[in-house]
Amino acid sequence: MSPWIEGDDPIREGGQLDLEDLHWYLAPTSLVVRQGAGKCPLTNENAFRVKVVQESRALENGHRIGIRRCPHCAAEDSLMFIGSRAATIASVAIDEVFSSVLNSDPKLLAFTDSVQDASHRAGFFSARTYHFTLRTALQHVIDDAGDDGLPLVDVGQALINYWSQPLPGRPGSLREVMATLLPPDLREYDAYLEYRNNPTLVNPPAKLLKEFISRLNWQATSEFSLMLTHGRTMELHASATLGWDESIIERSISLLRDRFPAISPALAALDDIQLKRWIHGILHRQRERGGMYHPYIDKYAEQALWGKFGWRSEALDYRETYPPRGKYMPRLLVTANDRYHDFALAPSRPGSQLPWQLVWARRVLDLPGVDDASLLDLIEAFLRSATEAGLLRCVHQDGNKAYYALNDQAVRLYPSGEKLLCSGSGHVLFRPLTESVLWQAAPSLSYRAESSRYQAAALNEREIYYRGRYRKGALRRVFAYEHTGLLTTEERENLELSFNAGATRMIPMC
What are phi and psi of 209, to 5 degrees? Predict the structure, then answer.
């Protein structure tokens, strides 16, 4: 749901509006949602009108689940929690304590009133604080690259090269870098344990190092693509941003213009600014939906296989270092209908919502005399031209159905940019300085913001805080361990001895 705004009243097929008693209202304190105007029956407070979407989709087992879609901009999975609970707040506090450069002996004891909670929160704290550690490490490497930017495909190796140098404030060795930046789901990976427990090995085996670099590349890809709009990501908080190789975009436009005569003569009137805005809009939306390429994408496009396990939940050795399946999965551009991906050539249908790609093309290209069929031909021509130029990558072909991902070879990470705010929907962009000029007074990417434009905006307190947090914090990995009666006496005593002997970055969860 979202607050009701003018023009939200749906008009039925007979030309009539919804009855007043069918409108939804939300009480701000009790969070009671009810139909019809009036005071909250629990708190007697005034309620305000909201727009509610009650859509669902069918799972493979036949069950139906709700679709989390904004009633106004039609963005999926764009909801956020209104409040935070103890575990979330504690993880933020822990990160602050451990990341302070004034804390030379970072240790902490944490307590909870349940054995089950102790086990759960130990894992939660380790996983949650890992992202802060990774962003701190990544921010320093991006800043070190400067205005030239850091190629996305080089992130993994750049992190190792930078943080393994024996300088103040850095781990100083490859072994320590791996211990600090290894994702939580790989802490018990056999190949890593063999390397960690063998002090005679200076460098890890070649296979382990390659897997580690590939996983770091994915973590960076996810930070600026799949998880871009979730959590305290770097671009969402104006700390760093991803930019495109403009020469590749110009090459794509040149190849696209060669295809205009076969589509519609009206396309010849389009200037480069319009086409660049149109292309950048497609790239940004698909990046938000996880469409950036990484080698992990290959099997996903070919077999719809994502995560560490196969279709029968069987363990697959080659996927052990892959990220867990998780809640969010990448969505690629495809040329035929697909439940897991975005149908780039979806036509408009009577009685249905117009596909976003057609809305965006009409909004930014301003072609009133061109029909939907020609616009779909234009989109198909763009997919082919951009692939030829190296802006997109065709990762799989199944007959006439092609799967396209954004080419990771065409992007760089930059330490600075400009914040732009949609005047209608509040949608925020943080773009590199060379690209932000293109978005000034540009149409909004938000589905319902038909007449809204992007304008330069000042950073808010939250963005200013995280920009500073990722740049000044010490690089310390937090390791939380369960400390309960479920452990054997030997395990519990070893944990206590390690903690008492001066092992830092530890949180026994009691």
Answer: -65, -40
CA distance 426 to 360: 17
> Over the Cα atoms of the chain, what is R_g?
25
Structure tokens at 455: 């304008």
User: For every residue of 80-102, which 3-state class applies, written as one string?
Assistant: CCCCCCHHHHHHHHHHHHHHCCC
**Residues in contact with 177: Cβ distance below 8 Å, sequence separation at least 6, in sequence order:** 159, 160, 163, 164, 171
Residues 377, 390 contacting (CB under 8 angstroms) = no
* Token pair in block for residue 181: 């930046």
The gap between the terminal CA atoms of the chain, to the nearest Å, is 39
Q: Is the dihedral of CA 275, 279, 280, 282 positive or negative?
A: positive
For 181, how many CA atoms within 13 A lie in the half-sphere containing its CB? Answer: 36
Give just the sign of the alpha carbon dihedral 37, 38, 41, 45. positive
DSSP 390-424: TSEEEEEEETTEEEEEE-GGGEEEES--EEEEETT
Residue type for 162, please? Answer: Y
The residue with tokens 């490859």 is 174
Contact partners, residue 431, CB within 8 Å, separation at least 6? 241, 243, 417, 418, 420, 438, 439
Q: DSSP class of residue 348?
A: P
Give CA–CA dist 94/332, Å, rounded: 37
Number of residues in the chain: 510
Cα separation of 181 and 198, whole Å? 19
Q: pTM for this one?
A: 0.81
* DSSP code per residue over 291-342: -B--TTHHHHHHH---SSB-TTS-B-GGGTTSPP--S-----EESS--SSSE
Q: To which H or E segment does residue 285 belong?
A: helix 272-288
Contact 237, 224 (CB under 8 A): no
Residue 153 neighbours by CB under 8 Å, 6+ apart: 217, 408, 409
What is the tens place of the pLDDT at every residue in 398-415?
999 999 999 999 999 999
Q: How far is CA 333 from the centre of its chain?
A: 17
* Residue scoring higher pLDDT (122 or 275): 275
Reported as a single tens digit per residue, the pLDDT across 174-230 is 998 999 999 989 988 999 999 999 989 989 999 999 999 999 999 999 999 999 998
Any bridge partners for residue 223, and if so which?
none
